[in-house]
Amino acid sequence: MLFDTGNSIIQQIHIEEFDNRGIKLLVKRDDLIHPEVSGNKWRKLKYTIEHFKQSKCEKILTFGGAFSNHLLATASACHALGIPSIGVVRGDEHTPHSNPVLERCKELGMFLYFVSREEYAQRYMEEYHQELHSSFSNTYIVNEGGASYYGMIGCQEIIPELPPFDHLFVSQGTSTTSCGLLLGLTHQTLHVVPSIKNYDSVNEMTSLFSKSVFNDCLIKELLEKVEVHNDYHFGGYAKQTPELAEFINYCEKSLQLSLDKIYTAKAFYGLIEEVKKSEKYDHSTVVFLHTGGLFAGGSHTVKPSNELPAKNDL
To answer: Rounded to two decimals, what is the model's pTM?
Structure first.
C-alpha cells in the first residue's frame, strides 16, 4: 500500500485523574501514516484518487489556503503516483515562496494557481468549476479539504481499526471525517469539536450527507449519535491563545503527544475539559482521533507525567 494505515498505532494516554475514574484514554495516531499525507488527509484522498483513475481525466485540481495541509497531502500523493496536480490557493498576494507549505507543494510538482479571496469564494459553484475546466483541460476537481462521498467512505475505514470504545472525539473542519466516522458507528457516541467559530456542525453534516444522496431518515438516525462541543475554537479558525500554547507544550512534554494549533490541539483540549466535568465518561474507553496536520513534525522522548495541570495552569 502506498500510504500504509498500519502505521497508525493506538497510543494509551495516562492521566492520573482519568485513571482513578476508570477511564481508558486512547489516541488513534493517524498522524503517523505519512509525514505529508497524514491523518485524515490520506483517508479522504484514497477513494477519490481511485475514482480519478477510473475517469478520463489527466490531472487533479483542488483548493486550499496558503497553509493548507490538504494541498500538501494532495501534492505529495499525486507526486508519488505520477499524477499532475493543480492547487487553487486563496490569496493572490501569495507566491510559491510565501511559506514552507507552498514551497513544498511546488517542489512536489503541484502547479499553484493563486486567486483573489473573492474568486476563491466561488470554489463550490458549478459555474466556476466550468471556468476551471476551460483553463485546465482534462482535470478532475476535488473539493476543498477532500470533502466528498469518497472522502467519507475513506474515513469510515478508521472505525474497524479501533479497539472497543464508548466515545470518539475528533476535530471538525469540513465535516467529511465526522460523517465518515458516523457511518461506521454502532452504539458509540461521536464527539465533534469544531475549530471554526460559530460553525453549524449539524447543518454542515446534514448538507454533506444530503449531497451524497442519504435519505432524511437515515441522516436523522446518524446525527442522533453526535455530540457537538462548540466552545473550544479559541477565538476562531487558526486563532490561538497563551492557554492553548501552554496546553500544546504540556501534551508534547508530558504526554508525548504532538498536536497542531489549528485542529488537533483544540479538539484534544475539548476532550480533556469535557471528560473532567462529566461522570458519564467514568469506567469507559475514550478515543481521540489524531487527524495529523503537523508538517515536518518530529519524535519526542520526554518522560510523560501522570498529572493533569489545572485548567488555569495550562
So the answer is: 0.89
Cα 78 from Cα 197, distance rounded (Å):
32
Least Cα distance to 163 among 280, 14, 286 occurs for 286
Q: Which amino acid makes up residue 182?
A: L
DSSP assignment letter at 295: T
Helices (H), 30-125: 40-54, 69-81, 100-107, 117-120
The sheet with strand 59-64 has its strands ordered as 111-115, 85-90, 59-64, 139-141
**Domains of the chain: which residue ranges?**
5-36+148-313, 58-137
What angle is formed at CA 45 by the lines to CA 221 and CA 300, rounded to 5 degrees?
Answer: 100
Retrieve residue 163's grid coordinates. 479497539
CATH number given to 5-36+148-313:
3.40.50.1100
d(CA 239, CA 285): 30
φ, ψ for residue 151, nearest 5 deg? -65, -40
Give yes or no for a contact between 101 and 176, defined as CB atoms under 8 angstroms apart.
Answer: no
pLDDT in tens, 278-310: 999 999 999 999 999 887 433 333 233 333 333
What residues contact 32, with CB distance under 8 A and at least 6 apart? 7, 8, 9, 38
Task: Give the ranges where 121-279 is alpha helix by DSSP (H).
Answer: 126-135, 149-156, 176-184, 201-211, 216-223, 242-254, 264-277
For 192-222, the pLDDT digits (tens) are 999 989 999 999 999 999 999 899 999 999 9
What is the distance between the alpha carbons of residues 254 and 240, in angstroms, rounded to a whole number? 20
Residue at grid coordinates 511559506: 99
Mean pLDDT of all residues in 92-97: 96
CATH of 58-137, one of 3.40.50.1580, 3.30.565.10, 3.40.50.1100, 3.30.230.10: 3.40.50.1100
Q: State the Rg of the chain over Cα.
A: 19
